[in-house]
């Protein structure tokens, strides 16, 4: 057995464990504290390490948040793949409702996604990683419209569809005077309406 190689692998595994611990702490904080007001110091305290230790694994706060976003995004990617496999382009309404439901049920993911979409001023490395996650969703939506027979501007239509669904959540997720269930029902109806408009326009 190569002892040097074994110790190297152990160090690599330990690094991944610590990195995941930091990401877990960041995601956990978003359940009780707004994304914008969560600092590196807060995350370090939750993870039980010093703020300086975080910078051994992440260049800055945005890089950490992108990694947390990608971790959370695995669920929506898996959910999208399942919906696409079960329904395909013929059930764009279900796909729309499923996407909106996910954003409602995963507030940390939604906060991080809108932070990067609205902020725009992030490092090149963090932006590259963020674009990977966003590109997957856009590719999935583009594939839906192509399956529906769209031959021109499928990518542009996918962008408009993605933006419309995000707009529903941004506008109504904290709608005053409505219960959580009422808000969810309303947003699902809007998602269905958006899907119907795009489906009709794509034919």
From TrEMBL:
Keywords, sorted A to Z: DNA-binding
Range of residues in the leader sequence: none
Protein name: TetR family transcriptional regulator
InterPro entries assigned to the protein according to its UniProt record, in alphabetical order: Homeodomain-like_sf, HTH-type_Tx_Regulator, HTH_TetR
DNA-binding region: 39-58
Pfam families (alphabetical): TetR_N
Domain HTH tetR-type: 16-76
Gene Ontology molecular functions: DNA binding
Organism: Desulfotomaculum copahuensis
Superkingdom of this protein's organism: Bacteria
């Amino acid at each position: 057995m190569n002892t040097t190689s074994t110790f190297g692998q152990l160090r690599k595994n330990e690094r991944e464990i610590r990195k995941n611990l930091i990401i877990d702490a960041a995601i956990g904080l978003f359940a009780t504290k707004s994304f914008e007001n969560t600092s590196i110091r807060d995350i370090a305290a939750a993870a039980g390490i010093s703020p300086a230790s975080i910078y051994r694994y992440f260049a800055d706060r945005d890089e950490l948040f992108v990694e947390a976003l990608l971790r959370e995004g695995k669920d929506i990617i898996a959910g999208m793949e399942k919906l696409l496999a079960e329904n395909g382009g013929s059930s764009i309404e279900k796909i729309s409702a499923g996407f909106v439901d996910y954003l409602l049920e995963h507030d940390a993911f939604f906060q991080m996604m809108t932070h990067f979409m609205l902020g725009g001023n992030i490092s090149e490395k963090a932006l590259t990683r963020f674009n990977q996650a966003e590109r997957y969703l856009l590719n999935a939506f583009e594939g839906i419209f192509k399956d529906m027979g769209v031959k021109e501007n499928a990518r542009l239509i996918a962008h408009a569809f993605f933006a419309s669904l995000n707009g529903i959540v941004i506008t109504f997720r904290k709608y005053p005077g409505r219960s959580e269930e009422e808000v969810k029902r309303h947003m699902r109806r809007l998602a269905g309406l958006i899907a119907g408009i795009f489906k009709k326009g794509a034919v």
